UniProtKB/TrEMBL annotation:
UniProt key word Oxidoreductase: yes
Name of the featured protein: Acyl-CoA dehydrogenase family protein
Acyl-CoA oxidase/dehydrogenase middle domain segment(s): 122-217
Homology family: Belongs to the acyl-CoA dehydrogenase family.
Amino acid sequence: MNLELDEEQTAVRQLAKDFVDREITPHVVEWDRAESVERGIVKKLGALGFLGLTIDEEYGGSGGDHLAYCLVTEELGRGDSSVRGIVSVSLGLVAKTVAAHGTEEQKREWLPRLTSGEALGCFGLTEPGTGSDAGNLITRAVADGGDYVINGSKMFITNGTWADVVLLFARTNDTPGHKGVSAFLVPTDTPGLTRRTVHGKLGLRGQATAELVLEDVRVPASAMLGAEGKGFSIAMSALAKGRMSVAAGCVGIAQAALDAAVGYAKEREQFGKPIAHYQLVQELLSDIAVDVDAARLLTWRVADLIDRGEQFATAASQAKLFASEAAVRCANNALQVFGGYGYIDEYPVGKLVRDARVMTLYEGTSQIQKLIIGRALTGISAF
Ligand code: FAD
């Protein structure tokens, strides 16, 4: 694996860094308090090509490899995880899945709009009763003439209230478990689809998270993505790549924690000297720094495997597991460096702690990642 960034990767990273410092960082506290990032950010992300990374230019994408995608995601995560999530879901889980499994017609219909930010995508897998055990979802799509009629509900859907299209997973036959699940591209203005904002989140407060309710939602058979019954494997392969993006976002959180903690430790004086002079404070800083580098290397390894066409799913679970737990540790250590000031939102680290916490939960909890890694090691599925 080559650890040197090439010219294109260096340029895209700098572009993202400048964008974050100019368009995101100055608004982070305001957006967090208002429980919404500014909606115009979606078009700005699209204009810079960040919603089209790794997608072919033919479909409006900005090309680039998975390491470039990681670098941008990391920078966005350093700025605001709520903004990072917009990209990880609309590009990482929806557009990339349409690009991989869509018909020519589906690609032409959705990819140019998703990559430009004219339209936003959301990923509807989780239901109120099925989270980790997603294969047992109960939302149902019944064939009716040339259409499907969908009934059910989806929970905790990132981008949900803002999205124009939901990549929805529904049961199309009664086979128990994941075998009867199919994927559909459902425009969110389809009659019968209603959305409710999920309020009161611990973190990612700026992100539009929704519960979706589907009552007799009618879509044409051409809305099915991939073959009937293949929905669960489509969801799992989307999430495997998605975990790289979550891990990159976690590296961004950890880097933000490091930057903030080092800066504060050199400024804040106690007992007559900057607190950076104390060994126990340096221990906190060095623990954060090691976590940042380890998480970054595991994440870049996944990008490298994907770009070389190698198996990457277990490595993605390893990266997501380590980086998410590391982000929680790093943010928490940074808060300790800030003392009481870390506990109020005028300083950045409290938000990092709140935003980091969900990373060990979504796109597969830490326990689920361990079961995936354990299955790869032993050949035994312990789910
Ligand atoms: P459960 O599955 O009920 O798990 C509860 C606990 O049991 C966890 O600790 C889990 O690790 C443990 N557990 C479960 N099964 C096992 C087992 N076999 N062995 C050991 N331990 C086990 N979903 C989407 O589809 N799209 C989205 O865009 C999306 N965005 C989200 C955004 C936010 C802010 C949040 C909070 C969630 C989001 N989710 C989304 C849902 C998320 O993926 C689920 O919350 C997650 O998969 C866990 O499911 P659950 O919450 O039902 O927990």
